[in-house]
């Protein structure tokens, strides 16, 4: 099933900036670039401009996600990932990047791809205050309650210990 495209108005805040585009057909995100060069030492962060502003239709938001290649190769992450662009925001989209590599600086040149923008429909909600929430199988378990890390209890640990 193919969804009809959502029309998003876009304004360039830098006249020569390329418009966001998908690297491959079917990609969820469109590439965001930086309009300024920057160098980040280990542990440093900065705000990089993208040269674009958008007007999303009501009922939609755009989310700024990290690029996996930058994370894997250079230790670059987004401080507030994913960053949320609300439908009513009309300012330039900016990306807060941080260099998590403990030894090497990372350099960005003008028009380097720095993040990806994913536009999604978002639901409008009404909150209803109650004295108690209904029960669930998970209940209040959070922050690691499902295990899966070698340093924590694993649900199959009793089987691994047999014969030792």
Q: What's the arrangement of secondary structure elements?
A:
Blueprint lengths: L8 E4 L17 E4 L4 E3 L4 E11 L4 E6 L2 H7 L1 E3 L4 E3 L6 E8 L6 E3 L4 E9 L35 H5 L3
Antiparallel strand pairs: 1-4, 2-10, 3-9, 4-8, 5-7, 5-10, 6-8
In short:
The protein has 164 residues and is mainly β. The protein contains two helices and ten strands.
CATH superfamily of one domain: Deoxyuridine triphosphatase (dUTPase)
Low-confidence spans: pLDDT under 50, at least 5 residues?
none
**How far apart are the first and last residues' alpha carbons, in Å?**
53 Å
Shape: globular
CATH architecture of one domain: Distorted Sandwich
- Widest sheet, order of strands: 1-4-8-6
Count of helical regions: 2
CATH fold topology of one domain:
Deoxyuridine 5'-Triphosphate Nucleotidohydrolase, Chain A
| Residues in helix, % | under 10%
Give the C-level CATH assignment of one domain: Mainly Beta
Q: How would you classify the quaternary structure?
A: single chain
Q: Sketch the topology as an H/E string, one letter per element.
A: EEEEEHEEEEEH
Number of strands: 10
Give the radius of gyration: 21 Å
Q: What percent of residues are in strands?
A: 25-35%
Q: Which structural class matches the secondary elements? A: mainly beta
Largest sheet: 4 strands, antiparallel
Mean pLDDT reading: 90
Give your account of this protein's structure.
Helices cover 7% and strands 33% of the residues. It starts with 8 loop residues before the first strand and ends with a helix. The chain has helices at 68-74, 157-161, and strands at 9-12, 30-33, 38-40, 45-55, 60-65, 76-78, 83-85, 92-99, 106-108, 113-121. With 164 residues, the chain is mainly beta.
